[in-house]
Amino acid sequence: MAYSNSEQVFMDVLGRLPAEHEWKEISALLGTLQRAGFAVDDPTNAPHVTLFAWGWARSTPRADVLAAVKAAVLEAGTVKIDMPAMNLEPVLIALRGLQDAAARPVAVKVDDATVKDAVSQALREPISLASMAVLGIVIAGALFIGSWWGKRQLEPTVQMQQMMIQKLTTPNESGREK
């Protein structure tokens, strides 16, 4: 079972898996925090959830925990983070320089020796041009021999059929065909 961030915080504070009645209390407390507008599963609020979990695990009275929740909600609404102003001008200048460099055409020079080496290596494949020519001659020879053998096998049958055709088409003595 996957636990939410806030449930995991409660388990870490307890140091064990809560019992069923403790889960009900944890769910009630987290539900109260959510209804108060507190994002309990937001990782940035983990320190506040840890405070509430610690108070609950040490049997701090419920009223004290609720008061701490209310204070945290009020604090979360009024806290302003002071960040120093960042100067992004150098970054923008660098980005413009990169855009200008990308827009310029680039002249590519090709080394003829490199191309010749690549072509010669491609021609040194396991199946060379000479072996392909030999293979072609073998295939043509096999076709010719197969054709000749088939003709030789069928020749008696063809002669017998031609004799039958001549017999059937030749007129007999009476002038009629059979």
Report on this structure.
By secondary structure, this protein is mainly alpha-helical. It contains seven helices and no strands. α1 crosses α3 (46-57) and α3 runs antiparallel to α4 (62-78). The mean pLDDT is 79.
- Indicate the multimeric state: single chain
Q: Radius of gyration, Cα only, in angstroms?
A: 47 Å
The separation of the N and C termini measures: 97 Å
Task: State the major sheet.
Answer: none
The dominant shape is elongated
Structural class assignment: mainly alpha
Q: What share of the residues does DSSP label as strand, in percent?
A: under 5%
The count of β-strands is: 0
Count of helix runs: 7
- Series of secondary-structure elements, N-terminal to C-terminal: HHHHHHH
Helix content: 55-70%
Uncertain segments: none
The average pLDDT value, as a whole number, equals 79
